[in-house]
Specification:
Elements: E1 8-16, E2 19-28, E3 33-38, H1 45-57, E4 61-71, E5 77-80, H2 82-97, H3 106-110, E6 116-119, H4 125-178, H5 182-199, H6 204-218, H7 221-239, H8 245-265, H9 269-289
Parallel strand pairs: 3-4
Antiparallel strand pairs: 1-2, 2-4, 5-6
Helix pairs in contact: 1-4, 4-7, 4-9, 5-6, 7-8, 8-9
Length: 293
């Protein structure tokens, strides 16, 4: 099963009698599913249909649906938006009464944005139903095309993440080899530190604390084992049908946590270099994982 991305674009166009329309559906990354619909006046009923169609297909991402509908070779029928006009007048009234503005003229009021609207509605109820049905079908097709575009991005992401996991696997093996020298290096370091402490005549308690601190740095096998387990979990997520973006993001954080601990515990340049290499690859993988649904 392929991953799904969250970025894509689709467009559909249609014609019915004297009406033409276009539907554009696009999506970008988002932590949750956010759907935005933009359409012409008179087609508000299609917003609910668009939202339901998007919710059926997507679980994450910012999805935008833009609808344009036009009547071909037909004059528009202008009308006044009285509600908006009254709001403009109510806003101006205090200014006029205070002498800060002159009373508006009729042509000035009608020139305000939104006061004059073009009535492009369909008068025939049956014609309206047929038009909305045809436009709704194209909205559905556009969203299906968008889902396919997101799947195409997901397939590319799946290949990238798979390559990163191969690199991480190889670095884990390098860490396993480099870690073989870790106990001896830490013991030698502690022996030198112990000589310094004894020479300073420090209390026994201080020496015990130092010994405990060095002991925790000897074994990095736990971090290596966890990194190996995370690789197995990541490959399992790649094969699952359910959206895996959030789980991949969390797993990437766990990858980085273990790589940081491994680097902090390192007593050799070789192991430190491997730890830094792991952090670079994990960070690059996490950037790509942000695009997974």
């Amino acid at each position: 099963m392929s991953l799904s991305g969250m970025t894509g674009f689709a467009r559909r166009e249609g014609v019915l009698a004297r009406w033409t329309w276009s539907v554009e559906a696009r999506s970008v990354n988002g932590r949750n599913l956010e759907i935005r619909f933009r359409g012409p006046p008179g087609f508000e009923a299609l917003e609910r249909i668009s939202r339901e169609a998007a919710q059926k297909r997507f679980q994450r991402g910012q999805v935008g649906i833009a609808l344009q509908v036009r009547e071909v070779d037909a004059p528009s029928h202008p009308k006044i938006n009285h509600e908006l006009l009254e709001r403009y007048l109510a806003t101006l009234k205090p200014l006029i009464e205070a002498g800060r503005a002159a009373p508006p003229s009729a042509d000035g009021l009608l020139a305000l944005r939104g006061v004059i609207e073009a009535d492009e509605g369909v008068d025939d109820p049956e014609g309206r139903a047929e038009l909305e049905g045809a436009v709704s079908a194209d909205i559905d097709r556009a969203l299906e095309d968008l889902a396919e575009a997101r799947l195409a991005e997901g397939r590319a992401l799946q290949a990238l993440v798979g390559d990163f996991l191969i690199q991480i696997d190889a670095l884990i093996e390098e860490a396993r080899v480099a870690a073989a020298d870790q106990p001896a290096l830490v013991r030698n370091r502690f022996a030198r530190r112990l000589e310094d402490l004894i020479g300073q005549a420090v209390p026994v308690e201080r020496i015990l604390v130092e010994a405990a601190a060095q002991a925790t740095r000897i074994d990095v096998q736990e971090e290596i084992d966890r990194l190996t387990a995370h690789v197995v979990s990541a490959r399992t997520l790649l094969s699952e049908a359910a959206p895996a973006g959030r789980r991949f993001d969390f797993l990437s954080q766990e990858f980085m946590r273990e790589a940081n601990t491994l680097t902090a515990k390192s007593a050799s340049p070789a192991l430190t270099a491997v730890g830094l290499g792991l952090k670079v690859v994990i960070d690059r993988m996490r950037e790509q994982v942000q695009n997974v649904e």
